[in-house]
């Protein structure tokens, strides 16, 4: 049976943190993904944005553990994470605040180097190339996310996109390849 768009998107988000691709995330995966992402974004070791990004991944790990729990080996399976993220009983606002937004906010700060509260296409492509999302998919996502058509993404557009990524019932919004395509 084919997964729903929300299941596919939650799985895709999980996959970005499963560094060793074993179908589980653990504290080490979250540490490494933060470290690797900071490296791929070209953040120097002493950059405040690097520290905020790594802190965000550590915070999200603690928040996911509190919400989902772990197995006896201190891991969370892909299946369990997806089940949690698409549960009809999920407090969506709490999920976004605790699980999605800390990393999104830290990434935003790392990319918005001029502090104008906007991401250009170039900044956006730099972000998603660090996640190995193809340029064509990232450009497609940028155009779809730029709802006011000004050639930049505002933080509000980006926040709405992250919410839609996880929760939209609209197949067009749920299909935006913000984190690439899940297999």
TrEMBL record:
<protein>
    <submittedName>
        <fullName>EF-hand domain-containing protein</fullName>
    </submittedName>
</protein>
<dbReference type="GO" id="GO:0005509">
    <property type="term" value="F:calcium ion binding"/>
</dbReference>
<dbReference type="InterPro" id="IPR011992">
    <property type="entry name" value="EF-hand-dom_pair"/>
</dbReference>
<feature type="compositionally biased region" description="Polar residues">
    <location>
        <begin position="1"/>
        <end position="20"/>
    </location>
</feature>
<feature type="domain" description="EF-hand">
    <location>
        <begin position="133"/>
        <end position="168"/>
    </location>
</feature>
<dbReference type="Pfam" id="PF13499">
    <property type="entry name" value="EF-hand_7"/>
</dbReference>
<feature type="domain" description="EF-hand">
    <location>
        <begin position="5"/>
        <end position="40"/>
    </location>
</feature>
<dbReference type="InterPro" id="IPR002048">
    <property type="entry name" value="EF_hand_dom"/>
</dbReference>
<dbReference type="InterPro" id="IPR018247">
    <property type="entry name" value="EF_Hand_1_Ca_BS"/>
</dbReference>
<dbReference type="Pfam" id="PF13202">
    <property type="entry name" value="EF-hand_5"/>
</dbReference>
<feature type="region of interest" description="Disordered">
    <location>
        <begin position="1"/>
        <end position="21"/>
    </location>
</feature>
